[in-house]
Specification:
This protein has 696 residues and is α/β, with parallel strands linked by helices. The protein folds into three domains: 244 residues, Roll (Luciferase, domain 3); 291 residues, Rossmann fold, CATH 3.40.50.12780; 136 residues, 2-Layer Sandwich (GMP Synthetase, Chain A, domain 3), CATH 3.30.300. It contains 23 helices and 29 strands. The strands form five sheets. Strands 4-3-13-12-14-15-16-17-18 form a nine-stranded mixed β-sheet, with helices on both faces. Helix 7 links the parallel strand 8 and strand 9. Helix 2 packs across helix 3, helix 2 packs parallel to helix 10 and helix 13 crosses helix 15. It is globular and about 85 Å long.
Length: 696
């Protein structure tokens, strides 16, 4: 049967059956070892899945099998660059605009040949058996070829975000003693700038970008590195093939470094078996996944979400077309006006998306609808409301002739934003708001599977299935994982809570990684092995389990918050930096996972602020009046920005908006402890309206 028909009919049948029979149990209680708690497993599997493919135990074996089975199919697609030019905005700033052409493809067989050649070339240019390779580049076809080439020689790959700062970059490369770095144009420039601080790098392989010759020449003059092009490494490997040195399941495939926004990044060691188990679980989740599907790849491959997603796509015989967040749609920042974005040209059927991207799509559609106004807006609002009511109501309203009518009249244009063919979306990396989830689901007519996992669990944890129409939850346990809630008495979360068990989320299963590279203390702190040999990771996140066995994230033990774009903000660290401002008596930073920026409540140092106001000739009736004045707020915020820059905080850590609080926070008021530590939750509840206004 046609997979597209299956992808449409199966969810409809499930939805109908659910409406007739009541709630479906998606997560079931499980009896496992380890610390006592409330444990769930996936409803379809009694024990965690390790491999979906018979006889396949490593990523290298999986890739080879796919390339042979789907040899003539398209695998890796890259858009041709037609032209690049600089445009000036009204404020004088210059922006690069790209005119990109059609996708040019490598088949599975061609990709496999390139992988084998690169693997051999890596050995031929002198990379040793026990040395590590770092891939430091944006997501692109060469990234995947290099990764698979390293796997064929059992070389551990260190993945590094292309946006990582100098200190974190040095730390990552030096800690793992990387000898070969594979990089793009802008990354080569970064490497040259810190070359004197890199202890073990011997070789650099650069991807063939336009305009890179200047950096190559500089690197050859200023460093002792051997500089090779990606193409040359493939060529020497093709001419001098080397026998593959295939890995074992327990061998470390990847050391994946975090973004480093809460201090120096930690390297998570992932074995071939770890990643394979997550990919095996996802294969059972996406309906009718197969060779007719096209996947748009644009998220960082240095993030486990994208790495796992592309592994699954290749395993299923899908085509993977590469793009970027800045060229994704026809209106993206880097797309030249009048030319097409990646989604329009590729026409993907599957996408992985972070909430920020989906929020942009939602906001763009709403803005366009509001701008048109009139009959167009009334028609859109009517269609949206009817579809919303249908999801919660009648079968025919949700899936019958009315749906087809609204799709033709209204939603077809919305779907065109992402190419018009998307049938399934996976959202991860940060919480997705219920409003955005429902909006995208209605307008695109495609299920959104929201997942929960961590680098330490190879992205495996939970996943919302295609027939789950709820919002705000992250689904039931993936088939590779157990989900356990344990009591966190200090925070008031207990597994005996009613109506839902609550507690810290602990994940167990074959996808749980060995730990952090060269960081045994931190590994022992958050990883535990039970009496049955099952490995568990203590996430620090707080969740509750719904009656159908689905998980909802409700809190976090530590004062670390992940913003909408996936960046982590350490509230205490930022507050300590901002407190240096002479205008600060007390301060509480607030970060909301559904927004991309922070806000803060500031209790001003009264004397310092009043002295400044007097010098400026600002009159005020009392201190509360002074704190309301815009010029005063601007002065304090400027001081905070200065303190933040002195502390070298990241842009997303600097509060975008502030509110001055004239009343001091004292133990008597209940806002701070006797030791004057913030009672963060009490302050948040007390000033909930002020915080809400800052996000308005």
């Amino acid at each position: 049967m046609n997979p597209y028909i299956v992808g449409l009919v199966v969810p409809l049948l499930f939805s109908y059956v659910l409406r007739r029979k009541g709630e479906k149990k998606r997560g079931l209680p499980a009896d496992v070892g380890g610390e006592p708690g409330y444990v769930l497993r996936n409803y379809r599997f009694t024990t965690p899945v390790e491999s979906h493919w018979e006889g396949i135990t490593t990523l290298a074996e999986l890739f080879e099998q796919s390339c042979k089975h789907f040899s003539d199919n398209r695998l890796l697609g890259t858009r041709k660059l037609i032209a690049s030019e600089m445009e000036q905005s009204p404020d004088g700033r210059s922006f690069e605009k790209l005119h990109l052409g059609d996708y040019e493809w490598l088949s599975y067989a061609e990709t496999y040949a390139a992988v084998c050649s690169f693997a051999s070339g890596l050995v031929q240019i002198g990379h040793g058996k026990d040395e590590r390779v770092a891939i430091f580049a944006d997501t692109r076809a060469e990234w995947q070829i290099a990764l698979q080439g390293c796997f064929r020689q059992n070389v551990t790959v260190v993945t590094i975000y292309s946006s990582l700062g100098e200190e974190a970059l040095c730390h990552s490369l030096n800690e793992t003693e990387v000898s070969t770095v594979i990089c793009g144009h802008k990354e080569l420039k970064k490497l040259i700038d810190i070359s004197g601080q890199l202890d073990t790098v011997k070789r650099v392989i650069y991807m063939n970008d336009e305009g890179i010759s200047k950096e190559i020449s500089l690197a050859e003059k200023s460093t002792q590195w051997t500089i090779s092009s990606f193409t040359d490494v493939e060529k020497v490997g093709q001419e001098n093939p080397v026998t593959a040195n295939m890995p074992l399941p327990a061998d470390v495939a990847v050391i994946m470094y975090t973004s480093g926004s809460t201090g120096l990044p930690k390297g998570v060691m992932m074995t071939h078996g770890n990643i394979l188990s997550t990919c095996s679980a996802v294969m059972t989740i996406v309906p009718a996944l197969g060779s007719k599907d096209v996947y748009l790849a644009y998220l960082p491959l240095a993030h486990v979400l994208e790495l796992a997603a592309e592994t699954v796509m290749a395993a299923a015989g899908c085509a993977v077309g590469y793009g970027s967040p800045l060229t994704l749609t026809d209106t993206s920042n880097k797309i030249k006006k009048g030319t097409k974005g990646d989604a329009t040209v590729l026409g993907p059927t599957l996408m992985t998306a972070v909430p920020a991207i989906l929020d942009r799509v939602r906001d763009g559609v709403r803005k366009k609808v509001d701008t048109k106004g009139g009959l167009s807006k009334k028609l859109f609002d009517m269609a949206y409301n009817r579809r919303m009511n249908a999801i919660n109501g009648s079968w025919f309203g949700a899936w019958g002739l009315e749906r087809i009518l609204w799709d033709i009249l209204v939603f077809k244009k919305v779907r065109a934003v992402l190419g018009g063919r998307v049938r399934f979306l996976l959202s991860g990396g940060a919480p997705l708001s219920g409003d955005t989830q429902r909006f995208i689901n209605i307008c695109l007519g495609a299920p959104i599977g929201q997942g929960y996992g961590l680098t330490e669990t190879c992205a495996g944890g939970t996943f919302s299935e295609y027939d789950d129409t709820s919002v705000g939850r992250v689904g039931a346990p993936l088939p590779c994982s157990y989900i356990k809630l344990i009591d966190w008495s200090e925070g008031g979360y207990l597994v005996t809570d009613s109506p839902m068990p609550r507690g810290e989320i602990v994940i167990g299963g074959p996808n749980v990684t060995p730990g952090y590279f060269k960081n045994e203390d931190k590994t022992n702190e958050v990883y535990k092995v039970d009496e049955r040999g099952m490995r568990w990771f203590y996430t620090g996140d707080i969740g509750r389990v719904h009656s159908d066995g689905c998980l909802e994230i409700i809190d976090r033990k530590k004062d670390i918050v992940k913003l909408q774009h996936g960046e982590y903000v350490s509230l205490g660290k930022v507050e300590a930096a901002l407190s240096v401002s002479p205008y600060v008596d007390n301060i509480m930073l607030h970060a909301d996972p559904f927004h991309s920026y922070c806000v803060t409540l500031v209790v001003p140092a009264r004397q310092a602020l009043e002295n400044w106001a007097s010098k400026q000739g600002i009159s005020f009736s009392d201190f509360a009046d002074l704190c309301q004045k815009q010029e005063v707020v601007k002065e304090v915020q400027g001081s905070l920005v200065k303190a933040a820059k002195q502390a070298r905080l990241e842009k997303f850590e600097i509060p975008s908006k502030i509110k001055l609080m004239p009343e001091a926070w004292t133990p008597e008021s209940g806002l701070v402890t006797a030791a004057l530590k913030l009672k963060r939750e009490v302050i948040r509840k007390t000033f909930a309206e002020d915080l809400s206004n800052l996000y308005a």
